[in-house]
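User: My instructor asked us to take a sequence, write out its structure as tokens, and then describe one feature of it. I'm not sure where to start. Here is the sequence I was given:
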Amino acid sequence: MGKINRCLPVKLIAGLIFNDTVAVLKAKDALRRSFGKIDYESPLLEFRHTDYYKEEFGTCLKRQFLSFRKLINPARLDGIKILTNKIEGELLRDKKRLVNIDPGYLDQARLVLATTKDYSHRIYLNRGIYAEVTLVYSDKDKSFAPCSWTYPDYRSREYAGIFKQIRDIYLCATHA
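Assistant: Let's start with the prediction itself. The structure tokens for your sequence are:
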């Protein structure tokens, strides 16, 4: 029989997709109030990997990733996704979202994203929320690598570099 261990705290991240800079500032303020200090903000990135959001958000979309200083218990991910959906709902215009917020967490081995969409590779958490391992860290390559189901944007070297930086911040926090 295996020994049951407590889970280690993880690094909360959020990926934002938007084209309204006022709305994204409001979203960041709401995220800060809910999760505390942001310790990493990626540069603004062009989001051109899919036209999935075009009807709702329009064109010229931007992407930005955030991470939060305070580490969390990974079992909180379902509640965090429900809260980020609520924040999105508070930032509607003409019944359309102005900001898409994708929460997840990172630890030394993986990046996990929360979603409301079920699929074969996703694990049910609670309250209609699923989790997906999106990237795995390779100690050999010192980088994140995608899984077969990983979305095209998360497969980019640019995103892998961002998550490597966040991982380094996480490792400093857990070894302090």
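For the description part of your assignment, you could build on this observation: The mean pLDDT is 95. Try explaining in your own words what that tells you about the chain.
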